[in-house]
Amino acid sequence: MTLATKKTEDSEAITATSPGNGGQPQASRLDTSGNDDGFEVFKKEDGAVDFRTVDWIPASVIFLKAIFATGVLSIPSALFVLGALPGAINVVGWQCLNTYCAILQGNFRNRHAGCHSVADMAQVVGGHWLKEVVGILFLVTWAIASASGIFGTSVALNTLSNHAICTNYFMIVATVAIFVLASVRKFEKIAWLTWAGFLSVYIAVFIVVIGVTTRDRPAAAPQTGDYELGYHVIAHPTFAAGITSVATIFSAGAGTSAFIPVISEMRKPRDYNKAVYLSMAIVSASYLTFSLVVYRWCGQWVASPSLGSAGDTLKKVAYGIGMIGLLVSACLWIHTAAKYLFVRILRDSVHLQKNSAVHWVAWLGCTLSISTVSFLLATGIPIFNFLVALCGSLTFAPLALGFPAYLWIHDHQHYRNGGKWRVAIYLLHWLMILLSAFLTIGGTYGVVRSIVDAYANGDIGGGFSCADNSGSA
């Protein structure tokens, strides 16, 4: 790229907000430092609440916790459906693609620094109607993801209490706890929670990984006589089962839309890429190693969530430690969705950064509403893998794969008229959009088909029932 081209790209229009346009995007010039308060949603002003307090290391931990939770607990059972080799290829391939899409989103946001969320970015490239579509997708995405966190927490409470009360009551307990945690107002203030949450899940999964390798046979397998492990290098699933497992693996690292609101609260938004590379490298390596080991030793007897794969004693230990991480994951996801609503409601209002009654009523109302919707989803689709896969196909595919590709296309139209290499890159981004469309349509069909079959076969005791449907689907 020539210096002249670089300067041209760096001077592209960015979005900013002003009281005079009702929070709509306004053309301005790029601030190359990424720190111009005139463009950022949250301003550094005397007497105002300072939201921009997150450094890049805490940001990387927030990113880690946003994606390293339910994914690592669902991938081993997805490997059983696909086989070890196709499963491993899916893990590596999707994680690389998810990392690239995260960088695309962050770079676009820093070129258009008035954007607080992917919905704001959608308005830049497609106008008001696309903003509303993407905004709805964003809310649905994190409501479903939060539902998986609520469900996972209820499984932990069931395990630790030997199913002492109805599962739905445990879900209520989990939802209330998550609502309280999610209502902490700033990402900086929940940073310590993300540290604790990440370490708790990581340690819990590591305990299970060690535990399954010390057993003569899987805990869920018959403990006497012959048994079939069910380990396959290459499996031969039906389309519905296969695409559901692919969507599950993709979903495990596709929560990158949650990264964007964090940029608005970073001290230096231009440090975003460093935080992404660090977090995604750790997540990718962990997903691949942990899931392959658990599947190799458990085969078809792997539990979902996978924390239950090493026997009753280690199951209680793992859930006791990992429950913090499940709570924090759902807390972070609800916080992210609520922050989008909150900024959308109070943007360009004096109450956005003022400790007023309107400020707090709006904020708590947002966290409560998202928590309630997530609770209803968790009780209505009570199988863990299906919640994760539904999130991957229905919302993550268009939001975390197709949309970032279109953001790049919007800002790089000149690649169409470049050399063969630039044209090839341009076409590859359109191919990403086609891939996201296939995963959305095919994946959603597969998940819905799997849910219908599970109800028909009695694998699900019924939505809103007291049955514990934590087993593998």
TrEMBL record:
Localization, UniProt: Membrane
Membrane-protein topology: Multi-pass membrane protein
Q: What Gene Ontology cellular component terms go with this record?
A: membrane
Q: Which residues cross the membrane?
A: 62-85, 133-156, 162-184, 191-214, 234-263, 275-297, 317-336, 357-377, 383-409, 421-441
Q: Which GO terms describe its molecular function?
A: L-amino acid transmembrane transporter activity
- Metal-binding listed as a keyword: no
Keyword terms: Membrane, Transmembrane, Transmembrane helix
Which residues are in the Amino acid transporter transmembrane domain?
A: 54-448
Q: Where is the composition biased (Polar residues)?
A: 14-35
In this chain, the stretch annotated as Disordered covers 1-35
Major site of localization recorded for this protein:
membrane
Biased composition of type Basic and acidic residues is found at 1-10
User: Which family does the entry's similarity section mention?
Assistant: Belongs to the amino acid/polyamine transporter 2 family.
> What is the official name of this protein in its record?
N amino acid transport system protein-like protein
